[in-house]
Design goal:
34% of the residues lie in helices and 18% in strands. The protein is of the alpha/beta class and 224 residues long. Helix 6 (164-178) links the parallel strand 6 and strand 7. It starts with 5 loop residues before the first strand and ends in a 16-residue tail after the last strand.
């Protein structure tokens, strides 16, 4: 752990997982609403704004990935800036003890869900109910098919969070609505603790010096 105060900026999708870990001394947190992920440029501007006003820290850690290009061009200010060397946070949730960064070819057609993601993805259920009430079953199913055509499976990642059973029930309902398989994987990723406590090694993290910027090519994962 570096000397001095550290700030961790994270997406609220992983708030429960991060909050379950006893933090080291002198760590502050700021969680960004997950709705920003729908708008990568807006997310990038929001992250840069937080970085720019976080001037009293010796290191800032972003618990994000490239996230659709949102992290591209982010500039460290007066302290080092650290971010996992991943393309999206699915890798963080699926990382294991054997390999901190879960290097996987994202299988096409999988809808990944966790307790945190269900905060926003419940809108699928509410939107379906709204269309169903207004236009009937045939129209409601047609809208869902157009929006989510190509998905073959909902995969719920269990991490042991509070309210997980409720979220799991919601994920099964989404799978039923999309007429796809529903599967569950149990995974308590050690990478969350690594984000909080380090070490922030160059294989798993991008470490940017003050006044330098993150480049998209920095996210290339190199074999150990």
């Amino acid at each position: 752990m570096s000397d001095g105060k550290i700030k961790i900026i994270a997406c609220e999708v992983m708030k429960d997982e991060i909050s379950s870990i006893e933090p080291p001394p002198d760590v502050d947190f700021e969680f960004v609403p997950m709705g920003y992920h729908l708008y990568p440029k807006k997310l990038g501007r929001q992250l840069q704004e937080i970085i720019d006003r976080s001037v009293e820290y010796c290191r800032i850690i972003l618990a994000f990935g490239l996230c659709g290009g949102a992290a591209k061009g982010l500039k460290a200010t007066n302290c080092p800036l650290t971010i996992p060397r991943i393309h999206d946070c699915v890798s963080i949730f699926l990382s294991s003890d054997e390999s901190f960064i879960y290097e996987f070819q994202k299988e096409m057609g999988i809808f990944y869900l966790t307790t945190g993601w269900m905060i926003s993805e419940r809108s699928i259920i509410s939107d379906h109910e709204r269309v169903l009430k207004k236009y009937g079953q045939e129209k409601a199913c047609s809208v869902l098919k157009r929006m989510y055509d190509g998905y073959k499976k909902v995969l719920f990642i269990k991490t042991g969070c509070p309210l997980e059973n409720e979220a799991l029930s919601g994920s099964k309902e989404i799978a039923d609505l999309l007429c796809v398989k529903h599967e569950i994987i149990q995974r308590k990723s050690p990478f969350f603790e690594k984000i909080l406590k380090g070490p922030w090694d160059d294989q798993n993290f991008i470490n940017i010096k003050p006044f330098y910027s993150i480049a998209e090519e920095d996210f290339s994962i190199h074999a150990s």
